[in-house]
Amino acid sequence: MGRRKLLLVIIIFGIMVLFVSPLATNAPMPADKPVAAPEKTQDPGEASPSSPPLTEDPAVLQVAAVADEDGMALLEQQSAKVSAVHPEIRVEWQRIDPGEADFAELSDELDGADIVLLPNEQVKPLAVAGSLLPVDSAYPGEALSEQFGVLLSQMKWNGYLWGVPRDFDPYVLVWNRNVLASARPDAPQSIPSGPAQWAEWPQKLAEKGVNASWLALDPSDPYALLAWIGEVTGKRQDEWLEPAEAGADAAWSSQSYEQALTLLSQQRGGIALASPGGTFWTAFAAGQYGAAVVRNSQAVKGLAELPASAASSLRIDRSAWETPFVWPNGESFVLSAWTGNEDAAMTWISEMTGRDQQSDMARETGRLPVYRSLYESGAGDLPDLSGAGAQRFPNQAPLSVAPDLPEKLRTLGTLLKQWTSGTPVFAEWKGQWATLLAKAENDG
Predict the structure, then answer these.
(1) Which residues form the signal peptide (predicted)?
(2) CATH 3.40.190.10 fits 59-168+329-376, yes or no
(3) CA 237, 240, 244 angle in degrees (round to 5)?
(4) What confidence tier does 41 reach under pLDDT thresholds 50, 70, 90?
(5) pTM score, whole prediction
(6) Within 10 Å of residue 410's Cβ, how many Cβ atoms?
(7) 200-235 b/e with 16+ CB inside 10 Å = b?
(8) pLDDT of residue 19
């Protein structure tokens, strides 16, 4: 019995060996080890994947700007931010002194520059002269619908846009509260309104023995004179620059204009001819001037630099902005007709007039941004312009959009300097201005 079992085990083991042996002998051979591909010899001019891609040389833009030294420094800072986003664009700057920025100087600059930042009033004359290229494509997205009417109208000519607004800086009236209270104790915080009350203002100062100039004006700024006339009359600040019916003629036939100009003539001795810089604001806070016509940025900056106790004696009045038109004093970027970097210039202008750049500019300078939405969002300490209607500043276009506007203003400035120095007398000054407008109408 035991031998049978042993024999059975041997037989079963033999059968298993017969089945397993073929499987073992037919097992696949291990595959050959992959052979490494020969290393490719790299072309010396080809960038490796790990190195940054090679780029073309950056476009070098020549940019000139009508700006003071502080304004130029801010422009360079903002441009550096643009270059960080667009390393393919490099900018070389040149500053133009604001006192030298006439038509001839700007025309010369455009011969060698790609882009110029200049006053809005110069955009149309330079476009008509053939010195500019249209910049419609520099308004990306909703940038065009963001613009105020008063600014956009200064960019348009012949169906195209010739500039991109960067900012604007309308005039305000600043009052010394203490001088007001001393001269008008019955209404210490009431500001003169209309020709009759303005005519009483110098008289009240004299009656109360207040030793202060009744008005401070910058003799180098003809816009300041126009702004004051608008304050007194409550009328548009550009009416008497337009030689048309109910336009410039109204400056000499309207009783309110006549009263305002007569007041200037009769009370010339009480006008302080002073530029709003240096010690101007300290003297103003101390009571040297009763009122002054200055740009909004000058007022904001002037009060900010005073001690709180001194600044509290001054009051900024922007009520004139509720009229149809005040001088915007805007500045815009324009593109030279001789640029060789049009695409790069358009990109750079779009970036330099973008929302963030405008906010920075307003915060640093007090000049106003050109995007409506910045006022609607209540960003910073901006004046409330979000609710301005279609018939109110800054949505109304100027009456005069003729290319000769800068020449009219230059002549007005010359006449203003002559008048403030004592010549000519008022009647002669009035006649010279009327003659100038008549000539402009005939030339047009």
Answers:
(1) none
(2) yes
(3) 125
(4) very low
(5) 0.81
(6) 13
(7) ebbebbeeeebebbbbbbbbebbbbbbbbbbbbbeb
(8) 42
Better-scored residue on pLDDT, 265 or 365:
365
- Do 59-168+329-376 and 171-327+404-443 come out as alike in CATH topology? yes
pLDDT beyond 90 at 295: yes
* Dihedral sign, Cα of residue 206, residue 207, residue 211, residue 215: negative
Amino acid at 146: E
Backbone angles phi, psi at 216, to 5 degrees: -115, 130
Hey, what are 240's tokens?
């008497």
Above 70 in pLDDT, residue 253? no
Beta bridge partners of 157: 160
Domain ranges (residues) in the chain: 59-168+329-376, 171-327+404-443
Report which of 376, 420, 429 is spatially closest to residue 148, judged by C-alpha positions.
376
| CATH number listed for the domain at residues 171-327+404-443 | 3.40.190.10
**β-pair partners for 95:** 65
3-state secondary structure of 208: coil
The full DSSP string for 296-337 is HHHHHHHHHTS-HHHHTTEEEE-GGGGSS------EEEEEET
Contacts of 277 (CB under 8 A, 6+ apart): none
Query: Looking at residue 379, what is its pLDDT?
Result: 57
